[in-house]
Amino acid sequence: MLGINLIFKVFGLFLAVAGQQPAPNNGEILMPTDEPFNMLKGEYQLDVNEMSNYRPTWASVWKITQNDVNNEIFYISTWPPKYCHGIYICPLIKQDYHDTNNFKTVEPEMCEKEYIKFYPHINKLHVKVAGGAEEEKYWMKNRLGFSIDNQFKAKLHVLESKPESHEQFMNATQKFIDFDFKNKEFLILTNSRMCQVNKIGSQFYPFFRKGIQKNPDQFPMWLNHGGQSNVATDYLPPVKSTSRGKKIDLLEYLKEQTWTSKKLGNLVKACEPVVGWRASGRKKPVNAQFKKVSVSSYAVNLPSATYKTDTVRRFTLNVEKCHWFRIWMTPKGEMTEYNTEMKLSETVDFFLNEGFYISPESDEAHPLPGVNELTKFTFTAALKDDVDLVDMTYGEMQGSPIYHDQFKLSAVGKTAFNLHIIKAPGCEISLDSRPALWTDFDAARVNNALHFGTCKFSFFQ
Questions:
Q1: Is residue 37 part of a domain?
Q2: Is residue 432 within 8 Å of 446, Cβ to Cβ?
Q3: 80 upstream amide cis, omega within 30 of 0
Q4: Are residues 97 and 139 in the same domain?
């Protein structure tokens, strides 16, 4: 066996990087499928991707861009907490990656000179600046913030000590650690392929995609970004289903109220239009803040079974001032039959103030981040019929999505279904059927296969 010079170990987790070895498979690594992957060595052929069509998983490269400088700040988020236990951010000299130029692990101890090790579940940071010693700091959020100037001088936001109470957290004063990121890029490693690291608003270069393309049958094929076939990836959607299924209705009290589609006195209330309100202007105050549980219902259908490769099944909810909301997606169910026909396996329940949602698959509560980030939810289904996996993108910062998750809901695989959006009193939600909302990059425009009928407004009293 050839000797290997270790460059670094990722704090007792899965990955390590080794000194240069001959590039296997011309830089395209063949992922082992029968044992944990535990070593980066030699060269890797990288190509650029976005979160909408791939995932970073264990190892990825992220550029520091002029857009970061223009915004004077950028963020690196980690999600979900269940899987993200250790993140290793390694600033390296930037390279251009293409068919003839691979990522190379050539410099001894290349990630021991300067790094940021982030342990989100214990709010701890180990930080080392080039030429300095390692420092222990703290951070209470699930994303790291970096201020940056036009010379690429950056400051990492940290806390000197860990707050032990809410009062201490609110009164904590941020400190800063200085970095020089001129001509640098980030190699980011995680402890799990299920951890979704995201330098918000950026493209990235995943390490293993090229190798997976050579043996796609050995990997999960569920990601779809408008193509006729799904894309193989080493990222596996989190398993949410249980033998018990979803049995507990946290909105049971709605069945004790009376549903109606009639007028409420002289008040006229209509659904929000099927466009983004940021495109058309804010609503008039008289149409906002309805004080009862309200419902917006849409008949959704796919008028043609023939799709181009630039087509998706997608819709977005713009959310504001909302305590909770429920999506009931059903092949035939109407609100007139809510008490008898509503199945919990057809619902997704979001409790924004409490910070969790319940998928259609079980009663398990899945965490949501801070309520201020939860202003937009996008739901994308596979283009093929009878495929029930939904990719949910949510959170928004600087015009870009932050978080991704998946769940199964059978109605999205049908050629026609009803979509009911049930909202808490005062909750404001508009539905946007445009297929491409986050367009920071020069990606090809896509079409939406889903056609939405006229919205019907109703409420509970």
A1: yes
A2: no
A3: yes
A4: yes
287 within domain boundaries: yes
Residue 275 and residue 153 share a domain = no
Per-residue pLDDT of the chain (461 residues; tens, 9 = 90+): 222 333 334 333 444 555 555 444 444 555 555 555 556 777 888 999 888 778 898 899 999 999 999 999 999 999 888 889 999 999 999 999 887 889 988 776 788 899 999 999 999 999 999 999 999 999 999 999 999 999 999 999 999 999 999 899 889 999 999 999 999 999 999 988 888 899 988 899 999 888 888 888 888 777 765 555 677 888 877 667 777 899 999 999 999 999 998 877 666 666 765 443 333 444 444 445 678 999 999 999 987 655 566 677 889 999 988 999 999 999 989 999 999 999 999 999 999 999 999 999 999 999 998 777 888 999 988 776 667 888 888 887 766 778 888 888 988 888 899 999 999 998 989 898 876 654 444 445 677 888 899 899 999 98
**Residue 341, H or E segment:** helix 338-341
Q: Please count the structural domains in the chain.
A: 2
Evaluate whether 369 touches 395 at the Cβ level (below 8 Å).
Answer: yes
Instruction: Report how far apart, in Å, the C-alpha atoms of 207 and of each of 22, 42, 79, 103 are.
Output: 16, 12, 19, 9
Is position 247 within any domain?
no
In contact, 47 and 23? CB cutoff 8 Å: no
When computed from its CA atoms, the radius of gyration of the chain, rounded to whole angstroms, is 24
Amino acid making up residue 435: P
Same-domain pairing of 286 and 165: no
Please give the span between the terminal C-alpha atoms of the chain, in angstroms, as a whole number.
Answer: 74
Token code pair at residue 112: 């021991």
Q: Are residues 225 and 354 in the same domain?
A: no
* 220 Cβ contact partners less than 8 Å away, ≥ 6 residues apart: 232, 233, 234, 235, 236, 237
Residues 264 and 363 in one domain: yes
Q: Domain check: are 13 and 109 in the same one?
A: yes
Domain of residue 313: give its range.
252-460
- Whether residue 211 is found in the same domain as residue 86: yes
Closest CA to 423 of 333, 350, 334, 340: 350
